Amino acid sequence: MIRELSNTTHTDCFIRIKREYLQLNGKVNSDVKPDADESIRFWSNIWGSKVHHRKDPEWLREKRACKDDRKKENIAIKVEMVVQQTRKVPNWKCPGPDGVQGYWLKDLTELYKRIADQLNELLNGKIEIRNWMNTGRSILCQKDSGRENAVDNYRPITCLPLM
Hints:
Order of helices and strands: EHHHHHHEE
Radius of gyration: 21 Å
Distance between the termini: 27 Å
Number of helices: 6
């Protein structure tokens, strides 16, 4: 069973349809949902914890040394690359914060040149990466229907932006 913690979005329609389909087959109890405040407390203890990493590990120093020996490749994303990758995108997976589903991206072929241009600008440092590009929208999916609304009975699934 899927429960969303964030504000209502257009993808709620798809979540509701899936839930109703599962209910028809007797696989879901629609009355079961975790307490939102308790869920936020439970998961923020995990997600909100700062982790301190070593800033200069040995393996990273070795990689940097190897990188200096090679000439920097000139990376450029071509429209054909965008077309090729777009074909691989699933049509109706739940979208991330950008709200874009693969079906629409595949249908709007006029955007491919613009997407390639903007990705090249990102790679060349002409524009900065926006926060929404590396931010996900998390939903909770019930693991065991027998345990009902226990907060630790839900696992998070994070939907990332399509591009």
